[in-house]
Design brief:
Number of strands: 17
Radius of gyration: 22 Å
Shape: globular
Largest sheet: 7 strands, parallel
Strand order of the largest sheet: 7-11-6-1-4-5-12
Order of helices and strands: EEEHEHEHEHEEEEEEEHEHEHEHEH
Number of helices: 9
Strand content: 15-25%
Bound molecules: flavin-adenine dinucleotide
Helix content: 25-40%
Length: 343
């Protein structure tokens, strides 16, 4: 039992021991879940095993019941499902009302969401209403012997890793970066419980009506890509990225970049991989003309296969690469693209 801070929670002793388990809020669009949701379910399973507590998932949206079963295959023991036409498009109030209802009714001790635009918005709205603490943009999530969530995130211009605890209140909440945690292998033999949750929507919640949803074009989606062909200063200029685009097109992948290439204005920041860019976890990552600075490596080291192409045999990138090609990228990259085209 911990005495809550006056003014934030009801005065008097609150028995936080009734809060148990780890809840992951599954983010989806158009019935397709964001990979970060399954990655968080993987990490939630690891935390819940230490806590000897259940793994829960919350699925919200319209025509999303298939995702409830999918969440069980991905590690959930229990899924709260709110499937309603009013939830077709994300809006803060209707979505946060469902979340608040589930949290207040089923009392998870930890709530996790992706640090996406939606996750950041929703987590903040919920945390203020409960109210409890929230660690945003975590890159490490552990639990200690006192069942406290240790959520760590880069701080002070990424120079430090801060570990943040919410000692007084439950649930302990965190958003976490995509690509950092590993999803469990999909297991169709897993079974679990699906609990329908009614939409908690009130007329005043529908302050904004979404008439049409248009996906932004031209923006690269590194987080969801299976193949990333990334280039750095070794490309020598923006024209070098054309070679990478051709290779990426053959592999059905997208183009990434080091910060050096972005800072030089050769490619836009949404392509940047690394500590101050996007953390990625593709099946195949090409690092071309990239030296392998630690700030780049932290953003891509969890890729399944890393192929490095660099003319310097001592480049640090070769220490983490599964396959290394020492040589001039301007000869090697077109040769790989041409070979793939001929197949
Ligand atoms: P370089 O280190 O200059 O490497 C270029 C490489 O290309 C060399 O290894 C060279 O041998 C090779 N090369 C040159 N010509 C050829 C050729 N013809 N064929 C083959 N190989 C060739 N960096 C990031 O990438 N992402 C981040 O998010 C990030 N965040 C940062 C945050 C902070 C707080 C700080 C201080 C730095 C950050 N950096 C980040 C910068 C990082 O430290 C490096 O400066 C950067 O990653 C270097 O980019 P690069 O590998 O493209 O360039």
């Amino acid at each position: 039992k911990r005495k809550p801070m006056i003014g934030l929670q009801p005065e008097g002793d609150v028995d936080w021991s009734t809060y148990r388990g780890v809840l992951v809020v599954v983010e989806q669009r158009g019935g397709r879940a964001k990979p970060v949701s399954w990655q968080l379910l993987g990490q939630a399973s690891r935390l819940a095993a230490k806590l000897e507590a259940p793994v829960m998932a919350l699925v919200m949206g319209s025509n999303v019941s298939h995702l409830a079963q999918e969440a069980i295959y991905r590690g959930a023991d229990r899924v709260y499902l709110c499937d309603s036409p009013e939830l077709e498009n994300y809006r803060t109030r209707p979505y946060s009302r469902v979340c608040l209802h589930v949290i207040r009714t089923y009392k998870p001790e930890i709530v996790l969401m992706g640090a996406t635009y939606t996750g950041r918005d929703l987590a903040g709205a919920i945390a203020t209403h409960l109210p409890t603490g929230l660690t945003a943009d975590s890159t490490q999530l552990e639990v200690d012997d006192e069942r406290l969530l240790l959520a760590s995130r880069p701080a002070f211009s990424e120079k430090m890793l801060a570990t943040i605890l919410c000692k007084q209140f439950k649930p302990q909440m965190a958003t976490a970066r995509a690509g950092v945690f590993e999803a469990l292998p999909r297991d169709e033999s897993r079974t679990g419980e699906i609990i329908p949750v009614p939409p908690q929507i009130k007329p005043e919640d529908i302050a904004v009506e979404v008439l049409e949803f248009l996906e932004a074009t031209g923006k690269v989606n590194l987080e969801d890509a299976d193949v990333i062909v990334a280039g750095g200063r070794g490309l020598g200029g923006p024209a070098g990225f054309r070679l990478l685009e051709e290779l990426a097109a053959e592999l059905g992948g997208v183009v990434g970049a080091s910060r050096a290439a972005v800072d030089l204005g050769w490619i836009s920041h949404d392509h940047q991989v690394g500590q101050t860019g996007t953390t990625v976890r593709p099946k195949l990552y090409f690092a071309i003309g990239i030296s392998g600075a630690v700030q780049h490596v932290v953003g891509m080291q969890n890729s399944t296969y890393i192929v490095a192409i660099n003319k310097d045999p001592q480049a640090p990138i070769f220490k983490i690469a599964n396959y290394g090609i020492v040589g001039d990228l301007f000869h090697i990259v077109p040769a790989i693209t041409e070979t793939l085209r001929r197949r």
